[in-house]
Amino acid sequence: MCCDLKRRFLLLYATQKGQAKAIAEEIWEQAGAHGLEADMHCMSETDKYNLETEKDPVVIVISTTGTGDPPDTARKFVKKIQDTALPPDHFAHLQYGLLGLGDSEYTFFCNGGKTVDRRLQELGAQRFYDTGLADDCVGLELVVDPWIDGLWLALKEAFLLQKEKEGMSSNVDAVSSSLSAAPDIVHELNLSSEVQNLKLEDGGVRNSDVRTQKLVDINLVASTGDTEPSLVHSVPPVSESALNIPALPPEYIEVEFQDTHGENPHLSSLISEGTTFEVPVTKAVQLTSEDAIKTALLLELDIADTVFDYQPGDAFCVICPNNVNEVEELLQILGLSEKGEYFVCVKVKQGTKKKGATHPQHIPERSTLKFILTWCLELRAIPKKAFLRALVECTSDAGEKRRLQELCSRQGASDYTRFIRESNVCLLDLLHAFPSCKPSLNLLIEHLPKLQARSYSVSSSNLYQPGKLYFVFNIVEFPACPTRAVSRKGVCTGWLAELVAPLLQPNKNTLDTKGGNPSTEKISIFARPNNTFHLPADPSVPFMMVGPGTGISPFIGFLQHRQKLREEHTDWEFGETWLFFGCRHQHRDYLFKQLKCFLENGTLTHLKVCFSRDSSTAEVAPPKYVQDVIRLYAKEVARVLLKERGYFYVCGDKKHMADGVSDAVVDIISMEMEVDKLEAMKILAVLREAKRYLQDVWS
């Protein structure tokens, strides 16, 4: 079909870390094979599209960031459409389909997409295709792939409807034939996060796959002894299937090696989120005993000579490097060990077929190769299927090539989830597992995402300790396993632990700031204010805090701040305060035993603790987890939260704690208010909306 007959649709994406953009690019690439032209733009490029006058269908791919916020690139767009002066028929002319990306580990799942979807509906826009909500917790591809499959038929129907409205029925047949490659699938897809209902293990080849995906059929016979699949080995039916693999992403980056003269850019140039501050680490304390399961460290930063400001409850970000040994190892595998200190110039490849190819914002125009691998690329990122597809072309061994094809194919979807995603496999793991794979440097720059700064809760009050900032973290450990040959520490926590090792004071378990060795080690940080996770504006309002493990971190700041306010304002009325804390062992990881000081001076009204792994000789076993303790104080929780209009804060692990706490609160509301569970859930939702039930959680 001639290019001038291709039907156009507008394709908008809003991304925070690049996933929405990558999915939009996949849609753009497939569109041509379906006789369509995708006019693709970032949502922030408002000078390149106009929804007020848009006549063609609109496809939107949008992620969610923070606590349910739209990504930065969508904020102006969202603000514009949320103008209350807009009439209810403002977008009555608009047909759209929306794919939202999110993570069900967090409370406001896919809220960025839901916000745009809801507002477009309120302004009269019509969906030509069901909204898809993809869950990064279980794998975006489980919803993204079938959603894209169904998009082409939905667009076909939208164009036919458009033709009928325009009275141009004579051209309907031409449009139909141009889209004949679209898969004949049911339009009504269940695209909720209930991904278990999606049947993706389709052994056949869809018609639509022929033009966008390469048919692979290399029947390598597995040895009879290997009956279980692994990262490097498959079993029937995958090992015997013809595979539907993604189209090969076009290369768009070229790297030119230069000399060894010059200076690398300052770390602040890598950050667009705000002002960076280079601050010294002045103290480090190990809060846990040597035999604790996890090692928790408390660090003190000196911010006295900066304008860095924060409130208790805020978070901040640490700019961290990749592990130096992993960088050296990668250079060796790439055959570039001698080139690490050479400056490289990264450019967009001339004549690339990649739509809208631009220089990656997180890669400096000129820096050393080692700087890029150390500070710019997330070497630990879980490889996406498009990356695996590109790695296939760099692999010489036939068996290894076939296995990589399987892992990025539709037929190997469950293997990808099990051996790549759930095993937290990274690029180095793959290169060890598939030694004949020798990717080029430009391929890594194209496919590895930006190395993200790591976020931590502030564990202090600037009012209580001016010029100081404290934070607490567990050193993350990734043990060796079948898919990971060596054990590793977390990118940032491992680096910080190594950095402060000379400062470390073992197991003092205190916030006493006296002593400590002077340090010349500095780290770069920038603010990440939290607009809601703060103390009540009215000090007379009671509040409850739930923070097991390192989840207690922001509440230390809360209590320090409250203590200082009580000292400075003796005439004020202060509401009661509750803290529910839990850990494994009382004598190994009770992080802040001086909590009793807050209790003794009246800053903290009630302290309830539990220890999940300590044995007990009591006739009635004590509660093990904070959610169990909360249930023991049901009447007090109901009184503070419902009768006295208090606040309820939860900080810590989402899946294993925060969900259990919210379930306990729902049960308490149901019991104390004598309503059914559904009504209790609605009441909790109202409390969340009113910002009186607040969470700062992580997965």
UniProtKB/TrEMBL annotation:
Its EC number is 1.16.1.8. One of its GO terms (molecular function) is flavin adenine dinucleotide binding. Its main location: cytoplasm. Keywords: Amino-acid biosynthesis, Cytoplasm, FAD, Flavoprotein, FMN, Methionine biosynthesis, NADP, Oxidoreductase, Phosphoprotein, S-adenosyl-L-methionine. The keyword Transcription regulation does not apply. It holds the Pfam family Flavodoxin_1. One of its GO terms (biological process) is folic acid metabolic process. It is found in: Cytoplasm. It comes from the Eukaryota. The keyword S-adenosyl-L-methionine applies. One of its GO terms (cellular component) is cytosol. Residues 9-152 form the Flavodoxin-like domain. PANTHER family: METHIONINE SYNTHASE REDUCTASE (PTHR19384:SF84), NITRIC OXIDE SYNTHASE-RELATED (PTHR19384). This is Methionine synthase reductase. It comes from Dromas ardeola. The lineage of its organism: Eukaryota, Metazoa, Chordata, Craniata, Vertebrata. The gene is Mtrr.
